[in-house]
Design a protein that fits this description.
The structure is a homodimer. By secondary structure, chain A is of the alpha+beta class. Chain A folds into two domains: 84 residues, Arc Repressor Mutant, subunit A, CATH 1.10.10; 51 residues, 2-Layer Sandwich (Dna Ligase, domain 1), CATH 3.30.1490. Helices cover 34% and strands 20% of the residues of chain A. Chain A has a three-stranded mixed β-sheet with strand order 4-3-5. In chain A, helix 3 packs across helix 4. At the A-B interface, helix 3, helix 4, strand 1, strand 2 and strand 3 of A face helix 3, helix 4, strand 1, strand 2 and strand 3 of B. Strand 2 of chain A pairs antiparallel with strand 1 of chain B, so a sheet runs across the interface. Chain B binds a DNA duplex through helix 3 and helix 5.
DNA sequence: CTTGATGCAAATAGTTTGCAGGCTC
DNA sequence: GAGCCTGCAAACTATTTGCATCAAG
């Protein structure tokens, strides 16, 4: 268990600032997530919460994750996309991802292999590939917005 | 259009080596993907292929993408996961992703901000965040396999 | 001819939504 | 008391699968 982060203490304040009501479910969802170290899925959180909140529903978990994410209190790990996307390139490359239009642009960064990864990674297992994803808003979306 | 990569020429050989039959659909799916620069989804590829192959079905596209991916001829961009995963950490961090068990482990890498990104990225738009994802197989999966 | 590949349709799985009642402020 | 929030059930959407047929080796 990761120690409870400071922001959990201030959570009610954050919720209020964002105009979010402080419901039992919402607090517990956040508490459970902030103590987890394994990047749970919505369903995993749901299962864990049923002890404390036997009547909570899976869609409440989903709705709260979306709400909390839009207020910057929670992160979605991995891709922002719901659909899988592919490429046929064999060369190593990295991605620029526009969070508005979803456009993915490639770029090369040979230097990435020169970065020395933390020692702890050597203990983790076999490393096969390293990908840098840069998130932001592309020029076109900056213009039209 | 990206120029046709050399491996397309050798594709039939690669297919044979992998024990894959060389079907009209499979070749066209790969050809279409290798010439695309926009990381299409399965459905986007399907739409594009209907000109040449009016009878092709969406599930054939899906099946071939999976097959080609498992033979290392195609990459899935973004996450390997079908399910969204979350965390409540506010600090920037990076991920170790085990392609066998799906476990995600965090690590810190403050140096990442010191990396000078290619100049072309300055023209791309507004950069907000940078995430390094390291793919591989975790120690536990190496053992049990 | 043998086996894997295809196309169709139906099934899944994760996620989202409509609605009526409940709880926070 | 007003409006956001919840739980239930049903809808959606991307993806996968069963099955009979077809084509590559």
């Amino acid at each position: 268990m990761r120690s409870i982060p400071k922001q959990l203490v201030d959570l009610e304040i954050s919720f209020r600032k964002s105009g979010l009501k402080i419901t039992h479910q919402r607090l517990e969802i956040y508490r459970e997530l902030s103590m987890a170290i394994d990047h749970p899925t919505a369903d995993m959180l749901y299962q864990r919460l049923r002890d404390k909140l036997p009547t909570i529903s899976l869609d409440t978990v989903y709705r709260n994750l979306i709400t909390l994410e839009s207020h910057g209190l929670v992160n979605k790990v991995g891709t922002t996309e719901s659909m899988a996307r592919f490429d046929a390139k064999k060369e190593k490359h990295h991605h620029l991802f526009c969070r508005k239009c979803g456009m993915i642009t490639d770029f090369e960064l040979p230097l990435i292999n020169k970065i020395s990864l933390p020692d702890e990674l050597n203990d983790w297992g076999k490393i096969e590939n390293t990908n840098l994803t840069v998130y932001g808003v592309c020029k076109n979306c900056l213009k039209t917005n």
